[in-house]
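A favour, since you know our structure tokens better than I do. Could you add the entry underneath, on a fresh line?
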Amino acid sequence: MQTPSHEEAIASTRLWLEKAVIGLNLCPFAKSVYVKNQVRIVVSDATEPAQLAEELARELRLLADTDPEETDTTLLVHPYVLQRFLDFNEFQDIADAIVEELELDGELQVASFHPKFQFDGTGINDVSNYTNRSPWPTLHLIREASIDRAVEAFPEAEAIFEKNIETVTRLGVDGWRALFATKS
């Protein structure tokens, strides 16, 4: 996989947000913060997990200290580290520990997206994995208060996961790829 420039990583992440996350309504809460420019997209230069951990800590502190009306959520895109999904998946424990160490548990949480995302018990090519596949490894820093508000507004939030799997299954891998195909 070719390593992107910051501009390329941001552009492909925005395309994924617009076409998949918002376009397919995989996250019914994403559109409102995206159109209000409250999504911060940061590209990390980290090449080692320890560097990414330091940057994650800085971004968590920054998000916690920023008015939600300015930045509601952050996508920390890290295309130069944790390319292997198993390494990325193990890093999630480190991310959770950083949230606790910063005493931000209950305030912020970290979700994960990866180009090779694979749910436990699924095959690597299972289309359901595409619900969490992003162009580059990405840590999503989310405010708990935003999740609470979104769940109040969407009373059947627990059904989102199943609906997303139905959506990508209907679309299929070819349909998913077609979302991002450039028109010539």
